[in-house]
TrEMBL record:
Pfam families, A to Z: HTH_1, LysR_substrate
Keyword Transcription regulation: yes
InterPro entries from the UniProt entry: LTTR (IPR050176), LysR_HTH_N (IPR000847), LysR_subst-bd (IPR005119), WH-like_DNA-bd_sf (IPR036388), WH_DNA-bd_sf (IPR036390)
Family indicated by similarity: Belongs to the LysR transcriptional regulatory family.
The protein's name: LysR family transcriptional regulator
Matching PANTHER family: HTH-TYPE TRANSCRIPTIONAL REGULATOR LRHA-RELATED, TRANSCRIPTIONAL REGULATOR
Domain of life from the UniProt record: Bacteria
Organism encoding this protein: Marinobacter qingdaonensis
Record keywords: DNA-binding, Transcription, Transcription regulation
HTH lysR-type domain residues: 5-62
Amino acid sequence: MKPILDLELLNTFSVVVEAGGFKEASGRLYRSQAAVSMQIKRLEEQLGHRLLERNNQGIKLTEPGKTLLGYIDRLLRLNNETLSALSLEPLQGPVHFGIPTDYAQTFLQQFIPRIRKTFPELVPRITCGRSRRLRELVGTGELDVAIVTGEPQYSPEKSLWSEALHWYGPAGFQAPGDEPLPVALLESDCALRDLAVSDLKRSGLETDPVLISSDMANLYSAVESGLALALLPESSVASSRVRPVQLNELPGQRSLTMNVVTASTLSPSFLEPLQDCMLAAARALIRQD
């Protein structure tokens, strides 16, 4: 008789792959690194295959690991659909979601089909905006659940995905010598703008903000055209004409984490399956990028 797959172990495996390592995954799963490692070992023993190889850069999927990853989203989604179908109180009616403006288009393409399939009676309502504004709306109950940029001043939150954050410039960029460094920045009251301004202040470089915009796509265009440098998440970069810049005064690669926050008005029984739909969409988005 073939073994029955443990969904908790499958979820742990998926988070480890997405996070790029055991240490990073342990924070998202609220487990110790040893516990996460043990779960992966149990899964490998159950399947009779080594799924991950560790190296100095992190982890690498084996061929059986790649095969398993291709099935995980479907398995977890079917689990959620089953729980929803058997629920005595199906999730129905309007549920208000907050999505960061810069991720809205690509995320919704992955999220809406999943949410409609898992919760056919749910009516999604979407508000797009900056993370801090979305947090405020969750706090007042105007939004039921929102994706927000992780910031250290907030209590631990469930992570949906992380990605590299760099200062980018046009390919072949050279520092302008004695001239001010041209930069593109997001508008105020934005976590990414605060990081960029803090980096520039600590660098001691003289800068010239040649573009200020509420849209990250405009910052990317400014970089691609050669107008400016900008602090951008890796998923926003879609051209070989844009490269991370190497300036001693500016920090190197960092990690940008996107979390999910929920209002007290949302029934706890629906919280986990909703978050799982969002997580599946996020994983597809990152793999797509």
